[in-house]
Specification:
The chain is mostly helical. It has helices spanning 3-10, 26-29, 33-47, 53-59, 62-72. The longest helix is centred in the middle third of the chain and has 15 residues, at 33-47.
Length: 80
């Protein structure tokens, strides 16, 4: 999993890391709309490029978000 995503998820005290898998949906993880906004801000700040709430929601799962971030690594987004 992308280190930026791991750090952002780890900073949310409401998440239970034992239930997080690549197939875990944001709803199953307990991420409500406010948590998605916070995740968007954290990832955008960490990566140095905008990751919108809509982009996050479009991925539907933790694994989908990780894949999207990996795809963006080839863009000028500062991902390594």
């Amino acid at each position: 999993m992308n280190s930026h995503l791991q750090n952002a998820l780890a900073s949310n005290p409401d998440l239970d890391p034992t239930i997080l898998t690549t197939a875990t949906t944001f709803e199953e993880a307990g991420l409500d709309s406010l948590a998605i906004v916070e995740l968007s801000i954290q990832l955008s700040d960490s990566l140095g490029c905008m990751i919108s709430e809509d982009e996050i929601l479009d991925t539907r799962t933790i694994g989908g978000l990780d894949n999207m971030l990996q795809l963006r690594s080839d863009a000028a987004c500062g991902l390594t």
